Amino acid sequence: MDKKIVRKGPLPGGRRGASGAGAGRGSMRAASRARGAARSSTSPPHPSSPPEGLVSAGSSRTQQAAPAAGGARRMRWSQEMNANALRAYFRAKGEETGCLAYRARMHRLFAELEPSLIVTEQNLADRVRYILRSNIFDVAELERLRREAVPSSDENATAEDAAPQMVEQPANVDAAVNTPVVVDSNDDGTVAQELELEHMRSILEEAIVETRSTPLENRPRLPRIALSKRNRAVVRALNPMLVTYLEASRDLCETDSILFGAALAVCRIIGAKVSTAGRATGHSSAIPAWRRRIEERIAKAKALTGRLICFRSGNNRPRIVRTVRMAFAGTNVSLSQPDITQKLTERIDDLKQRIAAWGKRIRRYTERSTRFNQNRLFQSDQKRLYESLERPMVSGTGPAPNQADTVAFWRGLWSEPVNHSEGPWTEVVASQCAGITPMDPVIITPDDVAEAVP
């Protein structure tokens, strides 16, 4: 129910009855000014707000564009900070092919280069990865930073001094940093290869760390990769990187996780599709809706057939009689007519034929689906196909029996005489074999064994 509110006092702003839209506009402005004055008189000024005498006409727009006080702002990395991050990264990695402790050394070296910045190891590692992937520095600048960090890697310095060429390459950095740099065209391939190896090292390290922290049953199933030249080159490039990890391995389980992580890294580098679901979960065997409907029909038909057979054999319970009447509903069949037994037999045979037809349909689908899946599995992974065809080994999960119980069990089977109910044919066979002369007993002596075995 709507209530009509009638204002009895004067309108805000000292106006009683101005006509038109101006009255409402003036009233709202006056009320807004009154609320603003009340708020300014009761609430203390913000610490970051300028004094009243310094507030200009455009200060309100400036304050609206400024971020809220206390909000978290991301740190802006300058060119020098990015360069120091790469210097710390190259110096921490050095000439090693792969290690897991370089992040701590990189964080310590970066703290020495930038003592005023406070970043975590994870943030610094993410920043270095972003710098290498987003091409903030060009190839020549990356090579210069690498040589500054690791002087021993200055292998192509003589070639660079012998045939320098001026190449202008814009870097993907701030707008102010876009100057021509000196690049040796002979080093482009080497630097690109080094960057690719660094990318492979990072992927390998991430895969090994991820595999170590993942249970065995939750590891993804790796696909089979084609034996192409590119895939072979990736494997040859990752093999030397595994030396450091394998030398530090303490047991067979850790070696297995390292090798599985290397295989996972190869799949990620070449772009192979890796299933995210673990081995324990597998694929859900969803039953088609039409098969569920047919199975429900078969179950109902079997139940009805059983009730009809019970009624034909003389079971006249009310539930059975009610089911039989429902089975013959819509037909001119009465339970009191003389040929009711024949009608029951015809109805039972009809239901059995329906059940057989429905079951044959499901059986044809199952056989076809099995053949299709086995053909696909034979083309992709023959080993898994042969393993699936083998009989599953059924082993008990309870405690193993002791020796005394085992001996008593087998003695009870073979030592105790048992009277079997033998058929008459056994007597016929025994009478036929009675005239056969038994063979002489064979006695084997140690001398016979010595002669037979050289």
TrEMBL record:
Keywords for this protein: Coiled coil
Residue spans of biased composition, Low complexity class: 26-43, 63-72
Region (Disordered): 1-76
Coiled-coil annotated spans: 341-368
Domain of life: Eukaryota
Keyword Coiled coil recorded: yes
Gly residues bias (residue ranges): 11-25
Record-given protein name: (apollo) hypothetical protein
